Amino acid sequence: FTHYSRPFLDTVSAPDAEVELALQFAQQCVDLDPRDAMGHWTLGRARFLAREHDQAIQSVNRSLAVNPNFAQGHYALGFIRAHMGVPTQALPALADAERLSPFDPLLFAIEGSRAISLVIEGKYDEAAAWAVRATSEPNAHFHIQAIAAACLALAHRHDEARGYAKRACSAHPGYSIRVFERSFPQKSATHRELLAQALRSAGVPDGEP
Predict the structure, then answer these.
(1) 19 and 7 in contact (C-beta within 8 Å)?
(2) How far apart are CA 132 and CA 99, in angstroms?
(3) Are 140 and 147 a contacting pair, CB within 8 Å?
(4) Which of 43, 92, 106, 156 could be a cystine partner for 59, CB 3.0 to 4.6 Å?
(5) What pTM did the predictor assign?
(6) Cα distance between residue 26 and residue 18, in whole Å
(7) Over the Cα atoms of the chain, what is R_g?
(8) Distance in Å from the first CA to the final CA of the chain
């Protein structure tokens, strides 16, 4: 999960190499103990960053087969489904995660994923409300500020959107749409462009190709 977090939070110059290490060590976890829910979960997260959406879902489902009460498993299922463009499947999983762990350290991420799901559904006002709420949760990082910027832009709350975009770029110098897309790979090109355009209109730069 450390190797997953480094490229996700844009802390390394060679993110693809870190994703490969995340895949390698997560697979080793599963091989050593297939009854450990977190091993399958970590493999699912790594596969998501590797843009292997369907395989990521398989791994997360295995983690929940091992432990149906694993809140992080339900969150990961909703998170990945949101980026696969199936919000009607994502939102129930995210609700399960919050029900199982209402004070979870990653509550900001659960709520941010709700916002992404609602964007895909075209419910921009609801998405903006959840995204802003996510930014006020403990541990919310710069990506969450960017999600709020995108959702607010889509809801035509442009001044607020620019404010959250500035927060994201101040919290992580060099932040860009390219960084966002590497951390949140959308399976659908249409959804990817929707979010990119929203971030662009809020003032997030495109970044180096």
Answers:
(1) yes
(2) 20
(3) no
(4) 43
(5) 0.96
(6) 12
(7) 16
(8) 27
